[in-house]
Amino acid sequence: MGNYNLAQVNIAKRLAPMDDPIMRDFVNNLDKINTIADVSDGFVWRMKDEDKEEGALVFKDDTLLINISVWENLESLFNFTYNSGHIEVLKRKKEWFGKMKMMHMAFWYVENDVQPTFQDAKNRIDYLNAHGSTPYAFTFKKQFSVSDFLNYNHLI
């Protein structure tokens, strides 16, 4: 089952425009966080900043920051999220982002050569918000394996 990677999307609603002083520390940390991701064990791909304007159109909200990336597995993503320099910035998220009422993160499996689109990400977030965690879309709190995903897909 090594033909699949883990895709993830996380979205955040910013408190101010990106050029506002409130967002300065976040903006100043973006390159650092992206570099940590790019060199992390298990990192495969991430949506580049220059491609992110499309996200506002798909999600119909230009105050959202949308991050999409692909990892070899859940463990790699978890280690980046919670066991790297990323955690220092994550702990400060309330300084820059408002609380979201809906689920703002989703994981799903993709074939190795697939780079998810904003529409793929929106579909998974919407599904997770409507149905809760399933092998189709899930979070760290309730995880599923590639086998779970493949068996579930046959049921859809």
Q: Please bin the fraction of helical residues.
A: 25-40%
- Tell me the strand percentage band: 15-25%
**Average of per-residue pLDDT values:** 92
Largest sheet: 5 strands, antiparallel
Unreliably modeled segments: none
Q: Using the CA coordinates, give the radius of gyration.
A: 15 Å
Number of strands: 5
Sequence of secondary-structure elements: EHEHEHHEEHH
What is the 3D shape?
A: globular
Distance between the termini: 20 Å
Give an overview in words.
The longest helix is centred in the first third of the chain and has 16 residues, at 24-39. With 156 residues, this protein is an alpha+beta fold. It contains six helices and five strands, in the order E-H-E-H-E-H-H-E-E-H-H. Strands 1, 2, 3, 4 and 5 form a five-stranded antiparallel β-sheet that branches. Helix content is 39%, strand content 21%.
